[in-house]
Amino acid sequence: MQRIALLTSGGDAPGMNACIRAVVRKAIYHGLEVIGIKRGFNGFMEADMGPMKLGSVADIVQRGGTILRTARSDQFLTSEGRAKAYENVKRFGIQGLIVIGGDGSFRGARSFNREYNLPVVGVPATIDNDIPGTEQTIGFDTAVNTAVEAINKIRDTATSHERAFIVEVMGRQSGFIALAAGLAGGAESILIPERPFNYDEICEKLLQGFRRGKLHSIIVVAEGASGGLEVGRKIKERTGFDTKVTILGHLQRGGSPSAADRILASRLGAGAVDLLIKGATKMMVGVVSGDIASINLDDALAQTRSIDLEMYSLAGILSF
Ligand code: ATP
Predict the structure, then answer these.
(1) pLDDT tens digits along 201-236
(2) Which residues contact 194 (CB under 8 A, 6 or more apart)?
(3) Which end of the chain is less congested by CB atoms within 10 angstroms, N or C?
(4) What is the distance between the alpha carbons of residues 179 and 183, in angstroms, rounded to a whole number?
(5) Shared-domain flag, residues 107 and 165
(6) Which of ligand 1's atoms lies nearest the C-alpha of 82?
(7) Within this chain, do residues 156 and 271 fall inside the same structural domain, yes or no?
(8) Which of 37, 66, 105, 253 to mutate for ligand 1's pocket (most ligand atoms within 8 Å of CB)?
(9) Ligand 1 center–CA 319 separation, angstroms
């Protein structure tokens, strides 16, 4: 293998740049040439790509977002779109592709591998942390830290009685951010899409807390569990308490990546290059028990990653 390409795809995640840097520098270290593809699969189809050198990735390890930019592409869902990308594989002499993104991006990479046999390696980067085959995805730690910082600040202002603070965090299908931020932020209740919840219980807990003199009550809601405003309305209806709702939204995607995310991104990016060099054809790199591991993309895409129910019940116990 002499020349590999990389792209970032799907939603951006803090740490993608640290991963790009690791891929480029590790590949060059092993004597490979690297092509950076811009705007995800769009740039792959439109030949928006060019060589990357050691200096192309200078001064980015600490930056959020992705210097290669990212995109969602309807055209790549079609075989015509992927055929256009294959023309560029031939034109640029690409022998392996590293896709940094979420499960949708991996499906795209797998479709391409099936049709054109190009070796592909996925690097899990999404703030949602919902990818099987790895204990953590790039961006999750930073997003959780952002949410916890926000909860800390809200807690500071939440010193008056009879008021409930609701913080809506990202997670349309999964409650990883809500659970981690709720536990770390000391939330009274955590609402996630994976677990049923009952407003009467939430309100009873809130009332109990205030009866025993709690000064604030914070409820963390994953956007997929319910809208924060809706939760606020229901609580007000049942308890009469004033509710303040904060929707963190895209704040959670931005910002300089945490040290943990930079380290994870560096290790996974380097691991992806190693996999291609070793002859992987359709794999995802991950971290399992703290070590760099790999899983076949088919297996990773066939599974779903479940939240840690023990952690969920611990958060419930600690919040009384
Ligand atoms: P995030 O988790 O942040 O949403 P993602 O990688 O899951 O990231 P998606 O929008 O689901 O983001 O997927 C990114 C792109 O991958 C899509 O816009 C599309 O171009 C491509 N893609 C997804 N599924 C397929 C598929 N089955 N075949 C070909 N391409 C696909």
Answers:
(1) 999 999 988 888 887 789 999 999 999 999 999 999
(2) 174, 175, 306, 307
(3) C
(4) 6
(5) no
(6) 29
(7) no
(8) 105
(9) 37
